[in-house]
Specification:
The protein has 323 residues and is of the alpha/beta class. It has helices spanning 26-36, 49-58, 62-71, 74-79, 94-104, 136-143, 171-176, 222-233, 242-264, 286-308; strands at residues 9-11, 13-17, 43-47, 89-91, 115-122, 128-131, 148-150, 153-155, 158-162, 181-185, 269-271, 320-322. The strands form 3 sheets. Strands 2, 3, 5, 6, 8, 9, 10 and 11 form an 8-stranded mixed sheet that branches. A two-stranded antiparallel ribbon has the order 1-12. Strands 4-7 form a two-stranded parallel sheet. Helix 1 links the parallel strand 2 (13-17) and strand 3.
Length: 323
């Protein structure tokens, strides 16, 4: 770990908020713990849900976001799933976008009090795109547009989707923007236990019958909505829906990319909330996720305070003097 006290002058602190869908509510707890310790990053870079939380923090809207998250129930989560029939994603994302616009308005990234960048991926080329200027809500929407689930977002003539495909924990962005000390938040550390090889029999035993889903009935489009909800969320604890399959596959790929990038460009400090057992679509478990994020950050606070030379808690200074 780099020692922030090894030089002289002021250092810039970067905070890299990783992707992880619903697990991203843990970022709220992390930010709360850092603030309580007097640590205020100069630069925040976010990928996917990390971009959402980072944008709300710098726009002064983290409290409303936390209130929104804590009020979510399974029913309310379903209410934000505006199904898309255009073929570019299961969900248009308009309802979520409108909610973000309600909190963030027409804020421009360059008008934020501190540096912010959202990471996205360009469709077709696979280029990593850093959104550090322009409309904040559109940048955030592009960063969390999970392929196949959310419709991609067009920004400056380029179609973009989730940045976790190229940079799941944007440490490199923080460094490129001038951060000398980078704190990273990895929401998927527990996934690294996967990757073992197992031998399984893909065919059911001769006396087993594969269960078929019952028909969905309803009127005036209700049947279609019920079908899509079942496909998205699954029809039982043992039968995953499309969202579970896609998100889990995406998350495994994201984990592999993250580990590769972390090996080549490790952060100065890592905060890794213990989120085992919390699904990527468990947005209704915000209370638990925020608490786990805060606990994880507090485990690292003592080292961070020592490394950064924070003189007392609650300071509003974002650049820390190195002694």
């Amino acid at each position: 770990m780099a020692n922030a006290n090894s030089g002289s002058g002021k250092i810039k602190i970067g905070l890299a908020l990783g992707g992880g869908a619903a697990r991203g509510w843990a970022h709220i707890g992390v930010l709360r713990a850092l603030k309580d310790a007097g640590i205020h990053p100069d630069i925040i870079a976010g990928t996917s849900i990390g971009a959402v939380v980072g944008a709300c923090e710098l726009a002064g809207q983290l409290a409303p976001l936390e209130e929104f998250a804590r009020e979510l129930t399974r029913r309310r989560v379903l209410g934000y799933l505006d199904f898309n029939f255009a073929g570019t994603g299961l969900i248009t994302g308009h309802r979520l976008g409108e909610r973000l616009k309600k909190e963030l308005g027409d804020t421009k990234i360059e008008d934020l009090p501190r540096r912010f960048t959202a990471v996205a991926t360009e469709i077709g080329t696979g280029h990593e795109v850093w959104l550090s200027r322009g409309h904040l809500v559109e940048a955030v929407r592009a960063s969390y547009a999970l392929p196949g689930v959310f419709r991609p977002v067009k920004v400056d003539g380029r179609w973009l989707f989730d940045g976790a495909l190229v940079n799941p924990i944007p440490i490199s962005v923080c460094r490129a923007l001038g951060a000398r000390y980078v704190i990273a938040v990895n929401l998927n550390i527990d996934i690294s236990s996967r990757g073992t090889i197992s031998n399984v029999n893909p065919m059911p035993a001769s006396d087993e019958v594969m269960e078929e889903a019952p028909p969905v009935t309803g009127k005036n489009g209700i049947a279609v909505r019920r079908l899509l909800q079942r496909q998205i969320l699954g029809k039982g604890e043992d039968v995953p829906g499309i969202s579970t399959v896609m998100m889990d596959a995406f998350n495994i790929v994201q984990d592999r990319i993250a580990r590769s990038r972390l090996a080549g460009d490790p952060p100065d400090a890592m905060i890794s909330p213990r989120l085992h057992g919390i699904g990527l679509f468990d947005f209704h478990r915000a209370d638990e996720l925020i608490q786990r994020g805060e606990v994880a950050a507090k485990r690292e606070i003592e080292d961070l305070v020592r490394e950064l030379g924070v003189r007392g808690h609650g300071t509003q200074s974002t650049s820390l003097t190195v002694t």
